[in-house]
Amino acid sequence: MAGSDHGEAARVSLFGRIFLLNALVLVAAAALLVFGPVTVSTPALLGEVLVLAAGLVVMLIANAVLIRVGLAPLGRLTRAMTTIDLLKPGPRLTAKGHGEIAELITTFNSMIDRLEAERGYSAARALSAQEAERRRVAQELHDEVGQSLTAVLLGLKRVADQSSGPMREELVQAQETTRSTLDEIRRIARRLRPGVLEELGLVSALKALTTEISAGLTVQQSFDKHLPSLDAETELVVYRVAQEGLTNTVRHAAADRVHLSLRARPSGVELRLRDNGRGLGDNAEGAGIRGMRERALLVGAELKVGPAPGGGTEVRLVVSA
What we know:
Layout: H1 2-35, H2 46-83, H3 100-161, H4 165-192, H5 195-200, H6 202-211, E1 218-223, H7 232-253, E2 257-265, E3 268-275, H8 287-298, E4 302-307, E5 313-320
Parallel strand pairs: 1-2
Antiparallel strand pairs: 2-3, 3-5, 4-5
Helix pairs in contact: 1-2, 2-3, 3-4, 3-8, 6-7, 7-8
């Protein structure tokens, strides 16, 4: 709001300066007509003064209107500058106006195009590096840590089989703890690198994802049977958006029910997540939602996050096939 007020003040200040300059010229011209060597009559009659005053007022009003109309494109440009969000691409400003004003708007539109392209390229590289790191960590957890814990588990079992009494009970408890830790590591590895997505496809990966949701949250699933094929990058974006949406629901929504659907659309596929939680309210978008927007931009998808009908939050992602 502070930036908007500042831009509006600057625009009004420019308008005021131009108007005052023109007003001074017109007042001086009128003064010369009335008090200068050239007069309508000597002395000026009241009717002539009134006519001149009326003409001056009309000229000032016309001048103000013309300047206001001429500077209107700058007002639109100022509002666009203060509200634009590179994660929410929108229509560009129409280059209305004359001369430098139209050129300024055109230059601004070109600048936004370059910024969006550069941000998209940077985000693509960052997310690609992030996915590569996820795969590396998941592989190490699965192969190295997982195998080490499996060896520990087998060793504990062998020692427990040879023990008795209280020592055996403690070893059995250590076995259960190790087994739980191993299961948790495998779960983390699956979340870091959704192998089922590469092996069985998007629908199977989403079904596996919903089974990992914490207890207390009922997940309703709905998938169309005949979905258009998507490339690997697009499938990964859909999966990550669903993953982030479900994670946000579990952590922040205070919901007990969420509906996940994947539908075929004439131009592609639509992913929809809808919960019955407390909604977003007036809270600013967090890193999770902004991450979803960045992923959506990578594949030219449309992402909308907002209140759901009847309460709660709805996440809607539409991707082209």
